[in-house]
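Two quick folds needed for the group meeting slides. Do the first one here.
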Amino acid sequence: MKTRTITAIIALSIFVPIVVLGSWPLLITVFLLAYTALYEILKMNRIHIFSIPGMLSMVALFIVMMPQESYMPYISMFQVDLIIVMALLMLSFTVISKNRFSFVDMGFCVLAVAYVGIGFMYFYETREEGIIYILYGLLIVWVTDTGAYLFGRALGKRKLWPQISPNKTLEGFLGGIFCSVLLALLFYLMGWIEGVHVLLFLTLTMILSMFGQLGDLVESALKRHFDVKDSGRLLPGHGGVLDRFDSFIFVLPLMNILPIIT
């Protein structure tokens, strides 16, 4: 617990000022986190990051994550075309490798790039919309996690999904949603989020809270499938980057799809 707390304090003391600054410092940080997460997820499937499929995945991740306004307009203009080329090159490698790198592995790499890339891309894009939005997204995840833990410890009896995450309970799941609604109400009453009706805003917050917890379960299912305890060891006491950002990968894209950011 001591190691976990120290790691959290150090990480937050570095991460929070970068989020506040935004712009290039945040963009560089988000890219570093995304590439670390890609390394972690490929390693689960025994695909080395510096193998041909790994390097193609890194190029594809770079393409997916280019900012929309973009600092490199020619890349952004052809993002979809370039990603298709990366996929075709990976398919070609299944032949060159004589199927040691299979069609299933290729699909895994493409989905890994989408899973990691889209989530971290929207971290940057959400911050660019305004600091209040990224603060709201971060707090939704943290408050939901805290509420789920406290309600689960105090009231938890019915397992939510024991085959995937044996410690999570239905009571904790609902408690996390309840706490997120209280947070949303605070944001609304303080006037920090505008242009959305209060009932719609609370409903959308509940959806984000549910999907944030689902994101955590998705990563748990991934680790269970590959029989690993943590995605990595970068953060002592916390695991890897994916272990810490699994909920954000679901919440931040949804924030930009749902009518929250106006």
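Then this one, please, same format:
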Amino acid sequence: MSRAVRLVRGALRVLGLPVLLVLGWWAWSVWRPSFYVPSPQRIAAVFGDVWLTARLGDDVLPSLLRLLAGYVLAALLGVALGTAIGLSARLRAATEPALEFFRAIPPPVLVPLIMLVAGLDTAMKVLVIVSGAIWPVLLNTIEGVRAVDEVLSDTARVYGLRGPARLRRLVLPAASPQIMAGLRQALSIAIILMVIAEMFASTSGIGHTVVLFQRQFQIPQMWSGIVLLGLVGFLLSLAFRALERRVLHWHQRETHA
């Protein structure tokens, strides 16, 4: 199969369903016009004027920086704490009740509390993201570390792998498939919480702007913000998939072997 054919098939696989959905949306807007659900053409017409002007630096960039900060912090804390808890049966038994309690609390409920503790600045929004995104990373890391093959652990012990070397060469690589699964789940949660935090108390950001447009009945502009969030999530998913292939190349070879 030629490279051109593979590229075309890959593009169709990625873009085929979105194109069909947009065509269906367009046909519906022609058949049943609605002020509250504008056509894709109307949204596309205002998209550039809204998001590719001053709002790119005033709203989009701050949102992405908050998202990145909260996601990275959640990933680092989740992997570090999850590794420590997964390696220690005593620590796991001591922390399990508290983990189950806090995991059951919906992160949006914590937003008013975080606002009281951290104020209304960027730190509050980052903490909101961390409060929800940390859980899939933490729990998947714990389970991944606990599931390390005992034969591999015994082999590492025989060869004298202990301490940081054992962690770096055995535990984290063996747990990395589940860690990456947790990081993938955390990414979508982080995007949701970024928007929620900006809707609650913010003077900038994509979430704040979408709510502002809704209150002003600027419906096409509001929909353009929703489309932008979808594009951000899609592009971040593609970037994460590329990173995942790079990190787990050894695991994928074993799976397909």
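Slide caption for protein two: DSSP finds eleven helices and no strands in the chain.
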